[in-house]
UniProtKB/TrEMBL annotation:
Family classification: Belongs to the binding-protein-dependent transport system permease family.
Pfam families: BPD_transp_1
UniProt xrefs under SUPFAM superfamilies: MetI-like
Domain of life: Bacteria
Name of protein: Carbohydrate ABC transporter permease
Cell location: Cell membrane
Keyword RNA-binding: no
CDD domains according to UniProt: TM_PBP2
Residues in ABC transmembrane type-1 domain copies: 70-283
InterPro entries assigned to the protein according to its UniProt record, in alphabetical order: ABC_transporter_permease, MetI-like, MetI-like_sf
Keywords from the named record: Cell membrane, Membrane, Transmembrane, Transmembrane helix, Transport
Membrane topology: Multi-pass membrane protein
PANTHER family, per the entry: ABC TRANSPORTER PERMEASE PROTEIN, INNER MEMBRANE ABC TRANSPORTER PERMEASE PROTEIN YCJO
Length: 292
């Protein structure tokens, strides 16, 4: 039996798509659909049946400030993410030049990213200790003489935790920006220099437009990360003091596994998913504004 070239091409195409599509459907779309279904039930995680209650979980979520209100704690991580990207872009521009020792500085800045997250959390736990922590000892040494309760003060605990993310992930963002900067033709900068453009003007009119899509990717990772913070408050503060460092994800886990309300926890996860999607759409409109 003779098979035409078009048929052979379609068979090969389908054969190569079966596995990735099966994985995508099995581990992405099906769990998402099942998550939305569970958010419409009052399942406790153990019962064989899942009682259908419609949108009651969503009504409870948006009417209870103890649940939806923890989103304000994630704001500190969002601010830290913006600072992280600004610092990463600054280091990337600086280290893309021919400065001495740039490779050493790249390693030093990137090193925190490859460190284990739990180890980093415990390391900063010792650093932030209000009695014998290194940070307060530094304050005493330089003459400030004021011990700060970095993880026990409700007004600063989230910013203290968010700073750890800046320290850990700036190197990762820097590497992303470095790769995009190396793809910009050197001739553009040489032509701008001949025309009398300053470094700031070259950065504004050449560098930023050229890496706009990379900035979008980096901010995508930043926004999703800031909305999904879990390990830092879970390890260092357990949500304290008095719930002031709880994030939406730690609260979701608490609702599911402490109070055995998997239906409400699923509704919280769906809301988080929709919120991240909305933020990313708005972010794309802002960053990619004016680009066709």
């Amino acid at each position: 039996m003779n098979i035409t070239y078009k048929t052979q091409k379609n068979i090969i195409l389908v054969a190569f798509l079966i596995l990735p599509l099966t994985i995508l459907l099995s581990f992405s779309y099906y769990p998402a659909i099942d998550l939305f279904y569970m958010s419409m039930t009052s399942w406790d995680g153990l019962s064989a049946t899942k009682a259908w209650i419609g949108f009651d979980n969503y009504r409870e979520l948006f009417s209870d400030p103890r649940l939806i209100g923890v989103f304000k704690h994630n704001f500190a991580y969002l601010i830290a993410g913006v600072v992280q990207n600004i610092a990463a872009l600054y280091f990337a521009v600086l280290l893309s030049s021919r400065m001495k020792g740039r490779n050493l500085f790249k390693v030093i800045i990137f090193l925190p990213f490859i460190m284990n997250g739990v180890a980093v959390s415990y390391m900063f736990g010792y650093l932030y200790d209000s009695q014998s922590g290194g940070l307060n000892m530094l304050f005493d040494f330089i003459g400030l003489g004021h011990s700060v309760n970095w993880l026990g003060d409700r007004s600063i605990v989230n910013y203290s935790l968010a700073f750890i993310n800046i320290w850990k992930y700036t190197g990762f963002s820097m590497v992303i920006y470095l790769g995009s900067l190396q793809a910009i033709p050197v001739g553009l900068y040489e032509a701008a220099k001949i025309d009398g453009a300053t470094r700031l003007q070259a950065f504004r009119y050449i560098t930023l437009p050229s890496i706009r899509s990379i900035i979008e990717v980096s901010m995508f990772l930043t926004v999703t990360g800031s909305m999904e913070v879990f390990e830092l408050p879970f390890i260092l503060t357990k949500g304290g003091p008095i719930g002031s460092s709880e994030t939406f994800v730690t609260k979701t886990v608490d609702v599911a596994f402490t109070y055995s309300n998997f239906g409400l926890a699923s509704a919280m996860a769906v809301v988080l998913l929709l919120l991240i999607g909305t933020i990313l759409i708005v972010q794309r409109k802002l960053i990619m504004w004016g680009e066709k």
